[in-house]
Structure formats: C-alpha cells, structure tokens
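A reminder from the course coordinator: this example appears on the midterm review sheet, so study it carefully.

Given structure:
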C-alpha cells in the first residue's frame, strides 16, 4: 500500500467509523421486539413520550447499548495493544488466556462469593493480571519474546479452561446462573452494571491512549526500540497488564466474548496501516460499533429467542481467525 492510498483510506475510515457508531447506537435503540421510531426516541429524551417507550428506552435499551459500547471498546483496545507489543496479528486476550483468567476469577466470585458481586470487575482484572504475569514469567529468558508469550498463553488458556470446567462440575448445583455468562452476552444488563463497569473502562481506555508512542516504537523491533531509548521489557510488561485490565473489565460484565480483540484491530490495520496514533482510537470505535450491532442482531433477529452475542461473534470471528492462520502461517 503506497502512502497516498493509505492516507486516503485513513481519511475515509476516520470519517466513516464515528458515523457508523452513531447509526448503530440508533439502531440498537430503535430495533427489537417492539420497534420504536426516531421521532419517539426524540420525545423520550426531549419531550413527553409514552410511558412504555420511556421504560423500554431508558431502562432496557440505553444502558445495554452503552455497556456494549464500553465492552467492545475495551476488547478491541486490549487486542490492539497485545498485537502491537507482540508484533503478531494473532494476539488476542481470548486466545492467549488473559480473558480466560479473568473469566475464572469471575466464575469463582459468582459461585463461591456472590455477596461480593460488586467487586466483579476487580476480581476479573486480578484473574487476568495474574494470568498475564504467569504467562510473562513462563516466557521469560533474558527477555520475553512475543512468540514465547503467545505459546505460553495458549497453554495457560487450555489449563484455565480445564480448571473452569472442574469448578463448574464440583459446584454443579450453582452454575445455572453462570452458563449464560460463559456464552458471553449483555442480556439483563442494566444501569447497575454500567455504573460499576464504567469507571474501570474509562480509566483503562484513557491509559491506553498514552501507550501509543511506546507501541509504535516496539513495532520497530526490540533492538531499534532500545536504541531510541525505550525500556522495552518494562513498557511491554506495562502494556500487557493494561491489556489484561481492559479484558478483565469487559469480561466482568459481558462474560467470555471472543474474537473482537482479534478481528477488529486486524481489519483496521489492513485498511490504514500500523500507525497506532490512528489504529488504536479507530479500533476502539470499531470495537464498540461491532459489539452493539451484533448484540442488537442477537436479541432481535432470533425473536422470541435471544442469542448470546458471544455466540454470534464467535461464528463471525472464528472463520476470520482461520483465514489469518492460513494466510500468515505464523504458528
């Protein structure tokens, strides 16, 4: 891709992505088992509206759309950061085990300590953080190469999956409420969930924007980054922990939604190139867009059954992942 083509694409993507995000938000508010027109939505926010519409929009759809925005943004940012520091398009919080670690911690909290459900984002982050730290330690040998991190992550993912299954078998009488969460979804999410997730998501997304320069330097290779004054291992570790924090925040509310962190950054990269000054913010917007759009489809197109959005995204993301494996032949 030459510079002129890349810049032209970049301008179009910068314009189109926020527009798509706005349209998808309106789509999420208007479409469902009961369709609501834009005119009625206007009256809900700025005038006198029917009480039924008021309840549907303000109590059901609006918090769900906002949670979807934050979940998609966190997952996409986490995937983009991991792909950048590992210089590998197959890196993703779900694939290398970070999401699984957060999920295991969340499952243990929900099954054994339901009274601490308010601390779910913190416990999910701690699970993701410990997983990331173990993976980094396993990959360390006078430095942690990206390939070793991914291989160690895949192994940890399998181990954590086995432990998760074991916990669910041992406490089989308590897992009914956890099963929908394992599939990944936003069903039943409300202002309560938004309130305890939003601070963590905003902090994590804000910090991610300060890592842009570091990720761009790491993309040059460890030796080049060191020559330019970068403390490679320190910055890589911090960015991986930040990615774990973002993944844990998303997992705590939405469950195990996969492939957003893999697919979205890679698609944006194909369109505009590797520069994280554009790639990271656009990935955040695109991730928010795809989760809200997929969630609206999952709850509306299969009426009266509501399909967990994690299942729908896996059906879309898995073929793309296989395409990447075949094209790149990295592993």
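Designed residues:
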């Amino acid at each position: 891709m030459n510079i002129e083509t890349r810049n032209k694409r970049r301008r179009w993507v910068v314009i189109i992505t926020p527009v798509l995000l706005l349209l998808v938000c309106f789509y999420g508010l208007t479409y469902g088992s009961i369709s609501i027109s834009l005119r009625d939505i206007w009256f809900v926010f700025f005038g006198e509206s029917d009480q039924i519409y008021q309840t549907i929009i303000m109590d059901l759809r609006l918090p769900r759309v906002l949670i979807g925005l934050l979940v998609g943004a966190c997952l996409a940012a986490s995937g983009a950061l991991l792909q950048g520091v590992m210089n590998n398009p197959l890196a993703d919080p779900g694939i290398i085990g970070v999401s699984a670690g957060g999920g295991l911690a969340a499952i243990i909290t929900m099954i054994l300590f339901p009274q601490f459900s308010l601390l779910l984002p913190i416990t999910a982050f701690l699970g993701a953080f410990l997983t990331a730290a173990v993976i980094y330690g396993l990959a360390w040998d006078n430095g942690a190469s990206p390939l070793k991190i991914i291989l160690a992550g895949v192994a940890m993912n399998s181990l954590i999956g086995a432990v998760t299954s074991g916990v669910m078998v041992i406490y089989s009488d308590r897992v009914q409420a956890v099963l929908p969460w394992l599939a990944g979804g936003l069903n039943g999410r409300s202002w309560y969930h938004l309130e305890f997730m939003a601070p963590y998501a905003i902090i994590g997304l804000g910090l991610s924007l300060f890592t842009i320069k570091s990720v761009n330097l790491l993309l040059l290779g460890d030796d080049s980054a060191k020559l330019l004054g970068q403390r490679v291992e320190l910055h890589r570790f911090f960015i991986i922990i930040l990615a774990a924090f973002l993944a844990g925040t998303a997992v705590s509310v939405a469950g195990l939604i996969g492939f957003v962190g893999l697919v979205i950054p890679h698609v944006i990269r194909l369109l505009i190139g590797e520069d994280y000054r554009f790639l990271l913010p656009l990935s955040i917007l695109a991730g928010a867009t795809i989760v809200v759009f997929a969630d609206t489809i999952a709850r509306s197109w299969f009426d009266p059954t509501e399909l967990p959005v994690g299942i729908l995204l896996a059906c879309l993301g898995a073929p793309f992942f296989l395409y990447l494996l075949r094209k790149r032949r990295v592993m």
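The chain has one domain: 3-328. The chain has a mean pLDDT of 84.
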